[in-house]
Design a protein that fits this description.
By secondary structure, this protein is of the alpha/beta class. It is 48% helix and 14% strand. The protein is built from 16 helices and 10 strands. It has helices at 15-20, 22-33, 53-69, 83-92, 113-123, 140-157, 159-164, 176-184, 204-212, 217-232, 240-253, 269-283, 305-310, 348-365, 379-401, 412-423; strands at 2-5, 72-76, 103-107, 128-133, 166-171, 187-191, 258-263, 291-296, 315-324, 370-377. The strands form 2 sheets. The protein has a 5-stranded mixed β-sheet, with helices on both faces. Helix 4 packs antiparallel against helix 12. It starts with a strand and ends with a helix. The model has no long low-confidence stretch (mean pLDDT 95).
Length: 424
């Protein structure tokens, strides 16, 4: 269940704004649902409600096989090929699992020789399988790391056994990784042509890592399908994802140039990283767009709180207040000293609730617009709901700005420069 509150942003985004801009909001939502525009990037819209029984069978089979062969799977990818899966694992698994179980480790999301060398040493004491995620197979970071780890598997297990320990999630028909996987008879899963990387977490890109980690990914998909169904019932004036997108749009026009997704639950911090890429890559183009960043409260209140409260007012805070159904009961003990007596017996849930309310009041009164998105439910279903909610809001926001939310022309500049230097 997701609820949107604009109460602490109404000084800047009024009901008059909503009424006056209603035609623009209607247009933006219409553009999202218009399959004649940017159709190549819109496959995610109906994806959660489609029949994926064949995909599920393949995911379950590969996960079972890899879990039987190994106790650690390295998932190699960058951007949308890893951020979504990482955030799902963080949200749906306990923070402290100890020994045992199947470990999912991410690599290829950067080029640190230290990180990857140490990881290879770590794997020496484990049985290892490998998942490489790349639509084209030519993205520099995962390509370099994949072939390094592939060689490690081949030296350790022999070429034939190594091939049985590798899964490629890639384009169904074309690309260098597809060709490489077919030649070596890797097991493969497809990335749909009409779903871009940052919108792909509900495809095999995210589902296989979830399955390997023991997450009920079908509940994730059910949550996304439920959110899709719920959003389809709203008229534009009451549509929470559209209202969130419109509020961001209006605030940006008033000079707020950055948005921080504020989380209070550590299990949601990696989700903020996925959100950051989704909005940054979808809307940061044509010289416009809010700069997306993230803040982890209450931790960051003791490092960044002063800046947010008293510095130049350039920031919008979107507070993602998440409560999971598996949230345990924990309270401060009784019998505290006089100065701490106000904490006597107070539950941590209440402390968190008071922190959210107090910070929003203090920051909004200081001139920082605060948007509240409150979410409740079991971790798997809620993850799917949040993914779909923000994907809709992001795409609508792109159309409000007049940009294509599904391309990323700017990221090619540094890639081309790196390739030219390496080929020189």
């Amino acid at each position: 269940m997701i609820e949107l509150s604009l109460e602490k942003a109404r000084k800047w985004f009024t009901e008059e704004h909503e009424q006056r801009l209603a035609p623009l909001a209607e247009f933006a939502l219409g553009e999202l649902n218009n399959q004649d525009r940017d159709a190549f990037g819109k496959g995610w819209i109906g994806w959660p409600a489609a029949d994926h029984s064949a995909l599920y069978r393949d995911v379950d089979a590969i996960a079972a096989d890899f879990r039987a062969k190994s106790n650690a799977t390295v998932v190699i990818g960058i951007g949308g090929s890893y951020l979504g899966a990482q955030s799902a694992l963080s949200m749906a698994k306990p923070a402290f699992t100890g020994e045992g179980g199947h470990e999912v480790i991410f690599a290829g999301q950067q080029l640190s020789p230290t990180y990857h060398a140490h990881l290879l040493q770590y794997l020496d004491k484990r049985e290892v399988t490998l998942v490489v995620v790349s639509k084209s197979g030519t993205t520099l970071e995962p390509s370099a790391v994949f072939h390094t780890f592939r060689e490690y598997l081949e030296k350790r297990y022999g070429a034939e056994e190594a091939n049985r320990r590798i899964c490629a999630i890639t384009d169904a028909e074309k690309g260098s990784l597809r060709q490489f996987a077919d030649e070596r008879k890797y097991v493969t899963l497809p990335i749909p042509d009409d779903i871009g990387g940052r919108y792909s977490v509900l495809t095999a890109v995210g589902l296989l890592p979830m399955a390997l980690a023991g997450i009920d990914y079908k509940r994730v998909m059910q949550g996304a399908a439920r959110m899709r169904e719920e959003l389809s019932k709203f008229k534009v004036a009451d549509h929470p994802a559209v209202k969130y997108a419109l509020a961001r749009h209006v605030l940006y026009q008033q000079g707020f140039v950055a948005e921080a997704l504020v989380t209070y639950e550590p299990r949601v911090a990696d989700f903020a990283g996925w959100w950051q890429q989704l909005f940054g890559e979808s809307q940061g183009k044509d010289g416009t767009g809010l700069f997306p960043t993230m803040l982890r409260y209450t931790t960051d209140l003791h490092s960044m709180g002063q800046y947010v409260q008293d510095a130049r007012k350039i920031l919008v805070e979107t507070v993602l207040d998440v409560h999971f159904s598996d949230e345990p009961e924990l309270a401060v003990p009784h019998g505290l000293d006089e100065k701490n007596a106000y904490l006597d017996g107070v539950s941590f849930s209440r402390l968190q609730e008071v922190a959210v309310e107090s910070v929003m009041v203090a920051h909004s009164e200081a001139g920082v617009p605060n948007i509240l998105i409150r979410a409740k439910g079991d971790p798997e279903s809620l993850y799917g709901e949040l993914v779909y909610f923000f994907e809709v809001a992001c795409a609508v926001g792109g159309y409000l700005m007049g940009t294509n939310p599904f391309d990323q022309p700017g990221v090619e500049a540094y890639k081309n420069e790196m390739r030219s230097r390496l080929k020189a």
